[in-house]
Amino acid sequence: MDKNYDFKTVEDKWRKDWDKKELFKFSFKEGDRLFVVDTPPPYVSADHLHAGHIMSYAQAEFIVRYKRMQGFKVFYPMGFDDNGLPTERFVEKKYKIDKSRTTKKEFIELCLKETEKGIETYRNLWNSLGISVDWSKTYSTIAPLPTKVSQWSLIDLYKKGVLYRQELPILWCPHCQTAISQSDLEDKEKNSKMNYLSFPIENEESVVIATTRPELLPACVALYFNPTDERYKELIGKKAIVPLFNQEVSFKTSEAVDKEKGTGLMMVCTWGDQEDLEKWRMDNLETKSLLTPDGKLNELGQKYQGMKIEAAREAIINDLKEQGFLIRQEDITHSVNVHERCDTPVELILSKQWFIKIADLKEKWLEMGKKIAWHPEYMRDNYEIWVNSLKWDWCVSRQRYYGVPFPFWYCSDCGEVILPDEKDLPVSPTEQKAPVNECPKCGGSIIPETDVMDTWATSSCTPFLLKEMIGNDQLFPVDLRPNAHEIIRTWDFYSIVKSTYHFNAIPFKNIMVSGHGLDEQGKKISKRLGNYVPSDQLVDEWGADAIRYWATGAGLGQNLRFNPKEIKKGKQIVTKLWNVAKFIDLNLTDFEEKEIKLETPDLWILKEMNETIKKATESFDNYEYAKAKGEIEEFFMSKFCDYYIEFVKYRLYGEDNESKKAAQTTLKKVFINILKMFAPILPFITEEIYQNFAKESIHISSWPKAEEVKDEPDFIEAISAIDEIRKYKSENQISLGAELEEYKLQTKVNLDKYGEFIKKAIRVKEIK
RNA sequence: GGGCGAUUAGCUCAAUUGGUAGAGCACUUCGUUUACACCGAAGGGGUUAGAGGUUCGAGUCCUCUAUCGCCCACCA
Fold first, then answer.
1. C1'-nearest nucleotide to the CA of A336
2. What is the pLDDT of residues A583-624, one digit of tens each?
């Protein structure tokens, strides 16, 4: 063995070896125990890989390697989420193009090109980190099979009556020009002005209303106050005139109006916010649709027609001021719902879209959530909070180019929906003919649906996509879904929705939720802040094992700071394992194990080892890789290196062959189990060392089993005695290697039994 | 405003069911020793955020307060 451990050469060697031997390729036969992992398919548009990515994927992979050693046949494919808005936005930004100013064909080609690149970037990183996925089973969400499964899913939902198409006020992104869903929203603090406007009342004085959105005045349809509000009681039955636009609106009351907010009077427009929508729905108010899909005022805006929202707001405020309707203004900051992909404030517009029923089935979603084992447990709360906050059905249609098409055609006359035959899936309605030439109901002509699916409508199929990839229903539900907490409300929730509707089953039995990677100051790592070292540089500098070690630093659900010291510590452990390996290797000879007569220190370390195996196994079983690492490391560094190796040196160098063999056997046995326990976390160094002893990969070897060992309970006293002498030597500045002539021991210990051992282990000639 | 997490040594974190607060890093001192200077040994360092309560006993359970993070709500 080389004197120094060269991680670059070694890690590269095993990467190639595993790849060549297809070590992680999935295969199983009847009776095998399966472990199916539904890994988050990353957006290929996320081209800035950093420690946070390493952390979350490594944490899941610790469990995967552990399960494999436990004898499970692991199905661990990798997917890529490459369709939909994220990719389009990425391409738009990168090539500085606008969807509306390029042809659909060119645009899709660029998306596909970037998709390919993205997959390569990810694949390189996973490989360098030793993420043991089965690369022969890779999917991308826009490929034929996933498209087929996503389309089948929609057809099934349609047949079950839970997918419907309706014209409704929906969440709309004026920048991306597409419908979006509640889960695509993000909060953003914005500076704004609260405008206090005077609304004249017929034959009377005016009332004052506060609003941040005067540009919605043309769509104002009613004014509301709280029924207990004495100030406005007598307004019922009267009408106010909307400033500038002059439509008459009536006063209404609602318990939901807060007397303390603004002036206690609220204007309802169609539609500025959730509250508007609810009043509109409840009181059956008039519909005044004001916005165009690109976020401009339509003809209802009169002289402001064609202006963008912000421009119209400014112009209207100016005119209000001029004509004396603006009483006063206040600077405020408030949070605004923006589209998370582009930061544009979202609007509500009337549009015909496809929806999946979710808002009325909260109880069902909660019930399904309870059937899943959440790691950590409290993450279920996050899920339940989201479910309870649902207000809208899931809008799954998007007016974009690069995505999985809806598998539907319509009758242009009666609107009848035409479904394809399931055996013809996948289909692309805009490019192929419908299964019928004319509407079977009215004989009208057929037009294709041009919408594509929301990205989550495709990725939420992965739990049952996996079984389709293998063609075996036993793979569903999957055993483990690992992901970060921000996609509980999307990927996880929608997966639960779909599996419930399709199979009345949970999609995954276990979910492990990871935290975020933070920079050294504790800030979330993000592309915008640039506060990260690219992942490939990290691996190059420290090696995969050391980085993976760092990833054990936070328990499930916890954020983890980037910390070079912890990576260094990982490197130190790798080096330590290497040095121990050299030491043991040098002193090993072949012998028959049955002749061995173990001595007290041997029994002690074996007993300690079995305790460690028990604890590490339990921790890994509970997805607590951080705890497992702590237990293994403590045993290796303190018990094995600091004590046991020191205890047996004199036997290894001595003349008593029987005693020497016992020490050697124990060293080897314990060390191999240490390697095995470290293997899920440090796959490279453990493989390198293990294959010096064994001819197979450590990663398909079996996880150690704890055995019962009868040790000598009073041996602990001998260890205390050795501690005492170590301390004495250190305090008196004597080298640990120097032999003391004589020492008077304070610690109570059975010297008849352990005197000789202590003298030799810590080098003292005479103990009193 | 509601909820969920967190707060333990200078730093990063442990602490089974309530039972003498522990590691690593950093710091101080020592040690070239035949696995390891990519090293080893020893040492100093804590009113467990604060205040109450339950208990023979609280880092751990309860109540309140403060600070931080996240989720949800908040556009009148």
1. B75
2. 987 666 665 556 788 999 999 999 999 999 998 998 899 888
How many angstroms separate the CA atoms of A15 and A23, rounded? 10
This complex has an ipTM of 0.89
Phi, psi of A337 (to 5 degrees): -75, 120
Measured in angstroms, what separates residue A710's CA from nucleotide B72's C1'? 56
CB burial of residue A360 (10 Å; 0-12, 13-18, 19+): exposed
Nucleotide nearest to A583 (CA to C1'): B35
Q: List bases in chain B with any atom under 7 Å of a protein Cβ.
A: 2-5, 12-15, 23-25, 29-36, 38-43, 69-76
Listed in sequence order, the DSSP H helices in A265-342 are 274-282, 309-322
> For residues A290 and A297, what is the distance between their CA atoms, to the nearest angstrom?
6
**How does pLDDT run across A224-266, given as a tens digit for each residue?**
988 888 888 888 888 999 999 999 999 988 877 878 778 888 8
In A118-272, where do the E strands start and end? 138-140, 163-173, 178-179, 185-199, 207-211, 220-225, 239-241, 248-253, 265-269
For chain A, first and last CA: distance in Å?
A: 43
| Closest by Cα among A166, A19, A73, A186 to A475 | A73
What does the alpha-carbon distance between residue A293 and residue A10 come to, in Å, rounded to a whole number?
57
CB of A438 within 8 A of CB of A472? Answer: no
For residue A420, is the peptide bond before it cis, meaning its omega torsion is within 30 degrees of 0?
Answer: no
Distance from residue A378 (CA) to nucleotide B54 (C1'), in Å? Answer: 26
pLDDT of residue A678: 96
Distance CA A128, CA A121 (A): 11
- A725: Cβ–Cβ under 8 A, 6 or more apart, which residues? A740, A743, A745, A758, A762, A764
Q: Are A709 and A610 in contact (CB under 8 A)?
A: yes
Q: How far is the CA of A162 from the C1' of B50 (A)?
A: 54
Rg (CA), chain A: 34
